[in-house]
Amino acid sequence: MKESVGxxxxxxxxxxxxxxxxxxxxxxxPTIHSKNSLYPLQFYQTKxxxxxxxxxxxxxxxxxxxxxxxxxxxxxxxxxIGLGLDHCQLLPGVRADMEDDENSKKKQNFIEMHHNxxxxxxxxxxxxxxxxxxxxxxxxxxxxxxxxxEHKNNRIPLVMLCKTAHxxxxxxxxxxxxxxxxFGFWQELLQKYQKGITENIANKVLLYIQKSLEIQEVGVxxxxxxxxxxxxxxxxxxWNECGDTLRISSITY
Length: 253
Hints:
Helix content: 40-55%
Strand order of the largest sheet: 1-2-3-4
Distance between the termini: 33 Å
Number of domains: 2
Structural class: alpha+beta
Strand content: 5-15%
Largest sheet: 4 strands, antiparallel
Number of strands: 8
Radius of gyration: 21 Å
Shape: globular
């Protein structure tokens, strides 16, 4: 059961604030009603409220937008550069310190941070699905906070690219950067949010692992880890999709 912060409320109690009516259901989920809106607005989203695909998509896009505007996201690239990821991983001669020092505000713009093989939308969807399937409810603030935490803990698959390489990647669907060049403990991310892996996300991971193994030879241990992960992801996805598949499979991005 969710706890109300600041004051106690009774089940189904209503509070009037200006033009808005705030109602609490049996789980104390605040819902805002307004005569200027056709639909009520819930603070916590549930599997039922996410049945509307367009509503679900707007929820994810809103949280991602808030995350991108956060100080955590804006400072994270600088943190990676401080770790030594200060050059393009495809064109190593292009470095972050090549920017003109006279314009410090644009320094490091030569190098851009790229979410590799899983987009930020994929990651937000996977986290949201996992939370809904385990906890039962999630708010925009919850999702933004989890996106911050996973970046801070370096569980997000990332590569550093110059602008030219970044544009090439987005303009060519066949272009990919193999797993041994990917920064981050992204295998832990998939393990942690395994109950949120949809069929679409699983297919992306499986294809990425296959191409990574085909493009470049890696050590035996690394290869075995990828093969084991492939089996796990396939199993998690099949288990998850045995339930509600209609809503998730219809989300396009």
